[in-house]
Specification:
Blueprint (H helix, E strand, L loop, with lengths): L10 H13 L4 H27 L4 H20 L7
Helix pairs in contact: 1-2
Length: 85
């Protein structure tokens, strides 16, 4: 579903948006929708990362440890050669 809204932008902002939309082969409306959606997702992910940090979770270290473990299993099973996926 699409909602029609009236928005006001500075001349500079709207010209930049038009230029980016044209470069990406999108209508101005589609480009603005995508830009707003990306901004909203960045806000959500930033808030999530902050919450994870406050909780004292170190997901990056856990992911790196998982990758090391996968490498050790590959070494044990395939002699250091990556398995065929």
């Amino acid at each position: 579903m699409t909602a029609k809204v009236t928005l006001s932008f500075s001349d500079e902002t709207i010209e930049e948006a038009r230029r980016f939309a044209k470069r990406e082969g999108l209508s101005l409306s589609a480009w603005m929708d995508q830009a707003a959606r990306e901004k909203a997702l960045r806000e959500v992910f930033t808030a999530h990362a902050a919450a994870v940090g406050r909780a004292g979770l170190d997901l990056e270290s856990a992911a790196l440890a998982d990758a090391r473990e996968v490498g050790m299993v590959d070494d044990a099973l395939f002699g250091g050669r990556p398995s065929a996926a």
